[in-house]
Amino acid sequence: MKVGVVTFPGSLDDADARRAVRVAGHEAIALWHGDHDLQGVDAVLLPGGFSYGDYLRCGAIARFAPVMTEVVDAARGGMPVLGICNGFQILCESHLLPGALIRNDHRKFGCLDQTLTIENNTSAWTSSYAVGQQVTIVLKNGEGSFVADDKTLDMLEAEGRVIARYVGNPNGSQRAIAGITNEAGNVVGLMPHPEHAVEGLCGPGTDGLGFFTSLGSVLA
Amino acid sequence: MPDVRTHLDTVTAAEQDPDREQPWADLGLKADEYARIREILGRRPTSSELAMYSVMWSEHCSYKSTKVHLKQFSDIPQETPVGKMLAGIGENAGVLDVGQGYAVTFKVESHNHPSFVEPYQGAATGVGGIVRDILAMGARPVAVMDPLRFGPLDAPDTQRVLPGIVAGVGGYGNCLGLPNIGGEAVFDETYLGNPLVNALCVGVLRHEDLHLAKASGVGNQVILYGARTGGDGIGGVSVLASETFDANLDGQSGPAKRPSVQVGDPFMEKLLIECTLEIFAAGLVAGIQDLGGAGLSCATSELASAGDGGMHVELDRVPLRDSTLAPEEILMSESQERMMAVVEPGDVEAFMAICAKWDVEAVVVGEVTDGDRLLIDWHGECVVDVPPRSVAHDGPTYHRPFARPAWQDALQADGAESLPRPTTGAELRATVLRLAASPNLCDKSWITDQYDRYVQGNTVLAQPSDSGMIRIDDETNLGVAVSTDCNGRFAKLDPYAGAQLALAESYRNVATGGARPLAISDCLNFGSPEDPDVMWQFAEACRGLKDGCLELGIPVTGGNVSLYNQTGDTAILPTPVVAVLGVIEDVTQRTPTGFQAEGDRVFLLGETREELSGSEWAHVVHGHLGGLPPAVDLAAEQALAELLVEGVGLLTSAHDLSDGGLAQALVESALRHDIGVTLGVTGDAFVGLFSESAGRVVVTVAPADGDALGALATRYGVALTELGVTGGDSVTVEGQFDLPLVEARAVWSATLPATFA
Q1: How far is A167 from chain B (nearest CA, A)?
Q2: Which uninterrupted H or E stretch holds B420?
Q3: Is the ipTM of this complex over 0.90?
């Protein structure tokens, strides 16, 4: 499968995401923020980083990048789209996902190995996992605290759209939410970084690989 | 816009008005230095020339007090245990061959004074500066590390500077996408008012991608690209880095120095990195230099001086953030995130296209000429006409007086060996806990968790491991390891031995992970060179490093000196931070830090002597500093390193013994994965647990591999002592005490959060 990874100015985990895509057995295609072109990919990944420096609200400028026109259209058409960290922030700013990510409650950047509980394995990016499975991947951000109004949170819970929850709550996220999906299950936003846990050598194990292999089972 | 030409001081004006009063003293120049500038030029300098000389002849840029001592590093053969150096001292950073067509460059630099004045921006731009140095060599930066020194943990000023410095290091490095893989955080009262912020960067390149800072080829275009030039950081190197702070600790009283600190934009730096690497890949650069300390003064004069011709610059073409800046200010500004490239005329269009792709502003500001002068015009009028070498390389040289301090003998006679010691098992246990909770030995994750250690996906080892290790090739698993170390207390007791102990520890830490040590970079942090005591410490440390590197067969690739680290008459502990870089052919074979499995056999490599002077025990328990530091045996260090490198695959874990001795090494090894240990300590249990003898590593092997380790130790002549076995949930010293890991973790991990939460 061809998985496009978008590079915005200030993207940092784009090369890591491409590596994870390859480790999972897919073909990684580098996409450029300034192109109105998805190069025929089957899925899109918006990687972590500080797009445009994130000096404004995180992801607020990236949503206006030329390539996002095509990404939003493709997402609405059912293409699997995964936003990790800054990518999650961009998906929220693009209104493909509800809610927002604000400053961590401890007011610091935090980088740690974080355990999550998978709560939904019907999305395009989580089918390799079992519901209730605990996975340990990397959490690293300054603005990773998920917030939404109660009505939205209740809806996400009722529709089973919380895909993963933190064990413990490292950043003050409402209801300890680490990741959510859209109604159709093709668009997923995830604050922690599964791409840093696909080979045991350079991360806390391989628990993150399932996010990328899930894609294969959906597309296959 | 005001017409700045009204007040412009041109070369013509300097000739017509030779006796004008000039503010050379306010710019940090001495009377004889000003006279020398007049002699070089045959007239008074223009105000722009004066600005350039003042920053380039500052202590920070010219090494005028230290170069007579630093030059001995060039006597060390310029080759590493595996190959030639591709670039050495004098370049932006040294470059080493690490095999498979790869080269690695690394360097450690200081940003001490700015970080005291404005902790966040000072530390942030320290990271930015060292990263550009590495980039300018043609390398992709792949990791950073930050050795930090602070005053006492409970001092109010530490509460001010530490959170800001840590947030600045993280804020800048995280935004660049560079993993922070190690470093140090050390507390001592002499750093109160003089925190040390050293920053290291490692970069990787292919041999053919090496770029040097020189402007050659008549007609080649000089391009300034990156951020616009603003009024920040004017005189940073001369006003901040080359003066002693007044004895005030708030950074507020006295004239405000904050405007001399630069302000960082890591996003621009990230664009600059990607843009520059793409320009390198396209082969569009004939010479390149980053803009750091002394800004355009440094870049133009160094590029021209290192080249084979002259340079002509039209300064009014420089893009400005503040249109009212005068030419003197533009030449002195240390605005960050700027680079200067020398490009063949036919390549300029392609160069500009890559800059445009990355939204990086780029302007042709001049060209290489066939003369031997650096000429700088401002709206058509010449404001600088100098021999570039006189600015960049022919600065003053001082033979500062130095002498062994009168107090040194008394200090060395006051050993810690006679201090009261714990004797019972209960007292030993309490001492282990007290040390584990002390600021220098406690868990540093409150600091390091603010740094991204995973980005780029190649981090094999990171803090709290003994060294940081980075994979540089996904296919072959080639990697490099780096460690930075220095025990300033040892250096105070004996600067020659102390510098060698810093070298030995860093060397050992790299080998502990399984990498072969290749070369060093150093950051020499000392007090005022105008104090003969301090100059003696500096001279002794340099001599120690040079002799040490000669004996170990590894070169000094470059480094940095930071002087005037003192408040009033109180200098910091002499702090020669040594960074050692090593190579490992297969990172999957690296030896991890910390016990990995229950039932492994635990051994001590190396000999323990009764060496407690300068130790963490003496510092924490008695507030004592005196005596002689641990003995240095570099031949033994070399043999130990050989064993550790060959032992990859056999050793299931390894951890260096340093601050806090065996006791602390055991606590850290056990807490890493919550695997305890039971051991016996022969002889005097206190000495066995708390001595800080050098050249020691605690290792584990699988139960069946004891004989193989024994054979290895025999082959390399390294003393081997079996201590015990891993397992359980406590550190148990037979016949002495039992310390549950949960109790050790509670005190070890509480110290920093309790202070800064």
Answers
A1: 18
A2: none
A3: yes
